[in-house]
Amino acid sequence: MTLVISTIFLSVALGLLILGLSGLISVAGGAQFVSTPPGLFHVILALAQLSPGEHFTELGSGRGMLCAYVCKHGSSLAEGVDISLPLVLFARLRHRGIPGLTFRCANLYTTNLKKTSTVYCYLLPHIMKRLEKKFEQELRHGARVIAYCFPLPNRKPSETFQRTTQYGPFYVYEY
Asked: Is 101's pLDDT higher than 60?
């Protein structure tokens, strides 16, 4: 009985430690972990306009819920990129076995976006500002960026969409 309680306590403590480390890594990198509401996943998929075989990248993918949704419902390839190794490992474990789905632990500013058809971001304004030049340099003609809540500061969106007043707007950019 004591061994069972000790094992449960150790498991809970380890989970809290991983969650805490993940939060520290994200904050140190300039971002906080906030998930896109799952009720908006179908809207993002519609805005992405993905064709079969196209590549969807989520910058700041966290637990990987959106990328898993895209692979299951969009018949395309999806990659989640996050700076937090614990979150990437969690996403890999939780969504293992989904064809076309990958997760990478990488810095958003140095990750390669040249093969990406659509980039999705729910990131803070200072991060969006830094990514704007990267998008211009790396994204191929016809690629799209979907930004939730926070727009790119110096580029006019080709489309702005707001589902309800409960959720922030989506900004869609064509490259």
From this structure: yes
